[in-house]
Amino acid sequence: MSSAERMMALLTARRGERILAGLALTSLAASAILSLVVSPPDAEQGNLIRLMYVHVPAAWVAYLAFAVVFVSSIAYLVTKRTRWDRLAAASAEIGVVFTALTIVLGSIWAKPVWGTWWTWDPRLTTTAILLLIYVGYLAVRRLPDSPARRARWAAVVGIVGFVDVPIVHLSVRWWRSLHQAPARLLGVPDVSPIMGAALGIGFLAFTLTYVYLMAVRLRVGRLEERAVAEALSPRVGQPVEVLMEEPARG
Amino acid sequence: MTLLGQTVAVAGKDLRIEARGRYALGAVLPFAGTLLVAFGLSLGPGRTLLQQTAPGLLWLAVLFASILAFRQAYQAEGEDGAIEGLLLSPIDKAAVFLGKAAAVTLELLVMEAAVVPIVAAMFALSLGDAPLVLVGAFVLGTIGLAAVGSLFGVLVESPRAREAVFPLLILPLATPVLVAGVKATELAATGRGGQAGSWLSLLVAFDLVVLGVGTLVFGHLLED
Amino acid sequence: MASLTDPDALVAERRSGPEEIAPPAVRLSAVTRVFGVAPALVRADLRVERGEVLLVRGPNGAGKSTLLRVIATALSPTYGSGSVLGFDLVTGREEIRRRIELLGHRTRLYEDLTAKENLRFACTMYGLDPGEVDPVLRRVGLAGAAGERVRGYSQGMRQRVAVARALLRTPELLLLDEPYAGLDEAGKDVVDVAILAARAEGRTAVLATHDRTRGSMATRTVFMDGGRLLPELGAAEVR
Predict the structure, then answer these.
(1) Which residue of A1, A204, C63, C221 has the lowest C-beta tally within 10 Å?
(2) Is residue A1 included in any domain, yes or no?
(3) pLDDT tens-digit profile of B102-120?
(4) Phi, psi (rounded to 5 degrees) for C28
């Protein structure tokens, strides 16, 4: 096995999952302490600034997850190995949750600060579009009945979607800059060292959580494939193990 | 035969079918008309409000029209399973993508040529100030919408295709077209056509990206 | 194929050329095709030599269509591997498509175009001489109706257009999937024209049909049921 495969196997083994869970929880706890207790309230926004410590890392994971979808999609189309499709699917499911979370947190933050639940802030708007693209990706996965076709269609959506997001962001940003003088954008206060540390730990914690969730989701994915292979095995006359290997590349 | 030649052949075939049956235009024109009249009525007769919202409404109409047009375009392929014929032929699959995009672009431009002047009249928009910008915005924006629609229109052919997936995909992906198209139209209609340069270049960039990526990946969508 | 580069193709290129001096027309090795959890074709092992006319019999739902469509590369195998005319089913798809023609249940015509226009479009797609369109339409007996839209055609007329397309192309492997459905005797004779032409020219044909009155020109028969190819019987038992 290559070293990458070995690492994947380690991470997704039960023991690996437990270690990841431990790391994720620890860093989340550290992040919580730093952001809720240790770091100071902001001069203008008061305690509301603490939302930044979850909103920004959540946004980071939302985009990271989609980047993983993008890279996996390309890898799948090039190599046709199902492992890349599994990776993309898992990342999309987890990513959509973090994207929704980002939007909700951003909304909660916007209401007291700007007096409105929704603002056409470029980053929030782009994230909303990202959410729609994710949902589209997941919807497309449910269309075909052949796994190879599902993987291919999803890969195309993953690639086109990802390439589109920066263009969307650019267009929304230009659109907004014409309308109002750049008001205090969410997440751009002067960052003192403690706040910087809290934010940094937050990034780490959320990233570890993402990796842990991916490990779990990939294991569930393999269980799903096993279930399908077991249903298929008697009808097709091939043992489950053979069916679980890479099927013919479509 | 070159990619260009094949693209022209596919586009020609699509346009000929459209000319015979007027499917896209027949669906799209009444829809656009109804949509715009309904908007006009629901927004009230206030002239300023109508003027301000007209560019946005126009582009919304174009966006929804493109969704309808693609449904029609891929319907002809689905009737007797002709799309399998395209898959099995040795032509470059990218030619199918580009050809269909080209055909729908032309169909939508015909619709726009009819609808835009009418909307200008109904919503008191002035079109004459920066005609080049206006035409540029509509042509480039339509190409962008057609590219996205042509790429994902194939998905409608799936056995479990639900009506909602295609618009669900198109709308977020086509956002830059909507934003840039509306802004450019707005600028052109309010005598500030000179400022529309960056919006038009955004449209060009979008078009190039989607057409480029689509050319590379379309084949993967056709295969089963 | 307009796609991101496929590293397997580099390896397969050596394999996707003709296998031996005269590779079989079709070679399938444990090919399985699944739709969702429903297997339509199960572990198909098949070898068809060039010049054969293979008859595939079986009830509805036996998997004949799926078999033919997999050979035609319209469907990719979920498991298993195979080659057609020496080219791999997956990596040699485009090469296979240049050399085969599938006459299926669906005629793959554009309803709003005339027979002539449909065939001309096929010529453009396959790089054939459009001058051949009129003669071939005459051959299938559609000279008169060639200028009318397909939408107004009967099933028989449509099938004739499809046959005309196959005749235009003279493919090395002709695949026919229930081509007689909905045709009268004269129409069925037209379909046989294509098969007999292939046979006469040393090309290969695979015909799947449950029409018992046809298929006498076959050199070999196989049976399918429940997605499987049944073990072959000797020629005497087939009658």
Answers:
(1) A1
(2) no
(3) 999 999 999 999 889 888 8
(4) -115, 140
Strand C79-84 with C26-35, pairing:
antiparallel
pLDDT value at A101 more than 80: yes
Does the residue C160 lie in any domain? no
User: What is the domain range of residue C84?
Assistant: 20-108+170-238
Nearest-CA distance A59 → chain B (Å): 18
Cβ–Cβ gap A129/B224 under 8 Å? no
Question: 7-26 in C: which are within 8 Å (CB) of A?
Answer: 7-8
Could you read off the pLDDT of C23-71 as tens digits, one per residue? 888 999 989 898 877 889 999 999 999 999 999 999 888 899 999 999 9
Interface partners of C (3+ CB pairs, < 8 Å)?
Answer: A, B
Element (H, E) at C228: strand C228-229
Asked whether the beta carbons of B96 and B104 are under 8 A apart, the reply is no
User: How many degrees, rounded to 5, is the angle at CA B128 between CA B126 and CA B130?
Assistant: 105
Q: Which domain holds residue A152?
A: 16-179+190-221
Instruction: Report the CATH number at residue C181.
Output: 3.40.50.300
Residue A248 lies in a domain: no
Give the pLDDT confidence of A126-150 residue by residue, as tens digits: 999 999 999 999 999 988 878 888 9
Is A87 inside any structural domain? Answer: yes
pLDDT band (50, 70, 90) for residue A34: confident
**Dist. CA A176–CA B161, nearest whole Å:** 36
Q: Tell if the CB–CB gap between C2 and B84 is shorter than 8 Å.
A: no
The number of folded domains in chain B is: 1
Give the residue numbers spanning the domain of B199. 3-222
Contact C42 A249 (CB under 8 A): no
* C126 domain residue, yes or no: no
The answer to whether B89 and C125 have CB atoms below 8 angstroms apart is: yes
Instruction: Indicate the pTM of the whole model.
Output: 0.87
Interface of B with C in 180-199 (CB under 8 A): none
